[in-house]
Amino acid sequence: MDLTQASSHSTSAQQRAGKVPVDPNLFDERPFLKRLGPTDWLFALAMVAGAGFALFRYHPFMNYYDKLVLCCAVPTFVVLGWRWKPVRLLIACIALLSLSSLQLYHSDLARADTNFFLKYFLSSQSAILWMSALLVLATVFYWIGLISRSPTGGAIGSKMTWAAVLMGFTGLMVRWYESYLIGSDVGHIPISNLYEVFVLFCLITSLFYLYYEQHYSTRAMGAFVLLVISAAVGFLMWYSIARDAQQIQPLVPALQSWWMKIHVPANFIGYGSFALAAMVGVAYLVKERGILADRLPSLEVLDDVMYKSIAVGFAFFTIATILGALWAAEAWGGYWSWDPKETWALIVWLNYAAWLHMRLMKGLRGSVAAWWALTGLLVTTFAFLGVNMFLSGLHSYGKL
Questions:
Q1: Which stretches are transmembrane (predicted)?
Q2: Rounded distance, CA 279 to CA 171, Å?
Q3: Cβ atoms within 10 Å, residue 234
């Protein structure tokens, strides 16, 4: 039985027992495509049209691999929008704000300091600052809602998180354009340094949380999950102030590869999922000890979210590791060199492989699983940051 089947069987059993909120769509026996309505197909058409516009307007800046990634992204986002409808409005708003920013620039980067909307809202730095502020405020409101049992606090926190995701993705899209305004030889996808990938981490973790929030019809987990996102925001702010990291720099030669465009996002889907699982594990341990027990979801729901997050994260981290090996073979002539970054990536992989093995084969549950998930976050954090800070190797271009 694979991870998806095991997750489906586990969730179905818990839904029949009344422990997990029931999604009525799970029991619609019609083929998936027959469940789609006119708005679903209109959304798909809009995505295809948007990709066509991007290819027509920006094809001089794209190589073969860029175009391939764009074409593969369309069906991915279409299916995502079909499965999770709130993301449709998010995609539309990101496109609207990003295109508005591009129009305001008029191919002149200096307008970021003179145009009101660019200076305070739609330049990449402004949008990312808005994202950071909204995520911290969302954390506060989630905690207010949890402690005071106020649905309003949680609802405000949720809306702020959605707004933060919107501004963050807009910031990354605009930053991509700004890099080309600096120079065609500088232009690159904004996932190449610690500043950019920390933004990506915040966005991916937030999106995964928002999905689980809707799927399980509870906002109580937000108070815990947003803590790790706010910690990432804190690092982002320190890194920007101390190292002026928000400045766009040319890519170092090791990163001038199309592999980066797929390896890094896959890696950070893994990191974001592992971080989310760890914080849900904290919520599990808190509830198990009777703290906020009547305000948090059931232990079964927390356990289910923890398992699904690790399963998804492990799948994407495995893909990212394979892609990284292929990239290494192209860049350095070998698939694996026991570089510190590679070694710690293997440690992370083995840790979560063992967690899933114990879950599926031995029925790992409860506080042991939660503590293990939390420990996994510490291992993952060292693999991501600690190696950059304390060890050297082929990946030394990622040093703090």
A1: 41-58, 89-107, 127-148, 160-177, 189-212, 224-242, 262-286, 307-329, 341-358, 370-391
A2: 26
A3: 12
